[in-house]
Amino acid sequence: MYVAVKGGERAIDAAHAWLAEERRGDPSVPELTVAQIREQMTLAVNRVMAEGSLHDPDLAALAIKQARGDLIEAVFLIRAYRTTLPRFGSSQPVDTARMAVDRRVSATFKDLPGGQVLGPTFDYTHRLLDFALAAEGAVPPAAPTAPAADEAVPHVAGLLDRDGLIEAEAPDDTPAPDLTRSPLELPASRALRLQALARGDEGFLLSLAYSTQRGYGRTHAFVGELRIGMVEVQAELPELGFAVPIGEIELTECESVNQFKGSRTEPPQFTRGYGLVMGQGERKALSMSLVDRALRWRELGEDFTGAPAQDEEFVLSHCDNIQATGFLEHIKLPHYVDFQAELELVRRLRAETMQEAAE
Amino acid sequence: MNIPLPPDDARRRDWMAILAKAPPARLAALMPDLPAHDLLRPPQIGTVMVQGRTGGTGAPFNLGEMTVTRASVRLGTGEVGHAMVQGRDKGHAARAAITDALMQGDAAARIEAEILDPLRREAEARRRTRAAKAAATRVEFFTLVRGEDQ
Asked: Which of A51, A62, A82, A91 to substitute to test the interface with B, most B CBs within 10 Å?
């Protein structure tokens, strides 16, 4: 129960002033610029854009600065800002097969058209702290280059699909439902689930995906393909009547290839899980593809084993960190009246119990 | 995935793509003086919902929004230009719309050479640089000869 209470205004003003001072830290240390955060804390910026569900690196960098590096607080700021903007429409679905890939690896095929391209990855680093980075001003040597083949980089799933070894993802133009325009209804379509997962908390999805690997809704996933790169975004301008490119954004796409025994109507074939995330976020894209696959048990005729990752209501209702943090953190706000009522009740029950004991 | 268009529309789509992807500061540097124009729709910041496809090829789903700025202009000579460009730079949207209008008039060849060609060359150079760095990280597999084979 909420009851309006007045007071605390002076305390709140002082708290905010102190917050601003603490945010700045030691004034003898140079202040961070938004451009520095955007360019050098890129993966934090990407995470804030993905979970904030708004692609704008400058805004995400500003939010990180304002939130003192608290990424969930920064996501909150982005979500709040987004609501102030008019939406002009929807893009055409992006064509990830035409991505200009910075990175593209497959764990299922060694040799494949387009090759295995590692890109700027943390993989194969030794995870030893590099104290050379503590010394400022060093410019790293330019990355090596090699002649680019300019060849097509087709999706790995397409190679399996050609032989009918994997379930087909047939072209389909069913309009996508939108979580931000109408409340979540269950059971949710796969399109709605993917939207919820794409903006969901990376940590939550990581844990759920890990749980499926450990046996809670096992799907035995291989990384069919993971790709990161720039994709063109096209949208129709009403004045023109046709779609034109309006920009390009970095995306991370992951397609998992999973075991499937076949059914009465389908011969044995592999099934698919899909992850697509704004920016460079391969842990999230990988997690998303595993969770997407686990949630598909019903349409693939699998058993519901009661695993959390299979439970659509559980996953979709709890994957949004802004909803979660909003409800969680509200309990630290004044609940004086609720608590007063509980206190009264406990005192009365205690008095009754003690009286009974005395009699 | 470019839908086939009549040649004039395809050409327009091509220059709008270059303008939308141009770094705003670079476009501003290439257009120090703007021709006389009316703002039919002053630059307005908003969002576009970006869609993906399930499995890359299946049904569309909503991935998340991106910020965009749109504008429409009419030149003193009558041509109408439109733009919708990524980000929140109002000058970027206005210059892109003005260039779109200029490309429909007598100045098209000059605009092509002075604005679009440099932007196209620079975008291609950026793309090539990244592709060359990616190519250097492409794995060349080789098979180790095992002891029992010798």
From this structure: A91
Mark yes or no for CB contact B86/A144 under 8 Å.
no
Does residue B61 sit at the A interface (CB-CB below 8 Å)?
yes
Domain span at residue A289 reads 96-125+150-321
For A316-356, the pLDDT digits (tens) are 999 999 999 999 999 998 888 888 999 999 999 999 999 99
User: Which among A194, A240, A246 has the least Cβ separation from residue B20?
Assistant: A246
B138 DSSP assignment: B
Collect all residues of chain B within an 8 Å Cβ-Cβ radius of residue A96. 52-53, 56
Residue A78 included in any domain: yes
Q: Count of domains in chain B? A: 1
Per-residue three-class SS string for B49-93: EEEEEHHHCCCEEEEEEEEEEEEEEEECCCCEEEEEEECCCHHHH
pLDDT tens per residue, range B38-85: 999 999 999 999 999 999 999 999 999 999 999 999 999 999 999 999
**DSSP category for residue B113:** I
CA distance B147 to chain A (A): 23
pLDDT digits (tens, 9 = 90+) for A46-100: 999 999 999 999 999 999 999 999 999 999 999 999 999 999 999 999 999 999 9
B144 close to A (CB below 8 A):
no
In a domain, B54, yes or no: yes
> Does residue A191 sit in the same domain as residue A108?
yes
Task: Give, rounded to a whole angstrom, the gap between the first and last alpha carbons of chain B.
Answer: 52
Nearest by CB: A117 against B51, B128, B137: B137
- Give the amino acid at B30: L
| C-alpha distance from A75 to closest chain B C-alpha (Å) | 13
The CA-atom distances, in angstroms, between A330 and each of A70, A116, A198, A203 are: 18, 48, 25, 21
Among the candidates A52, A82, A112, a domain finishes at: A82
What ipTM is given for this predicted complex? 0.94
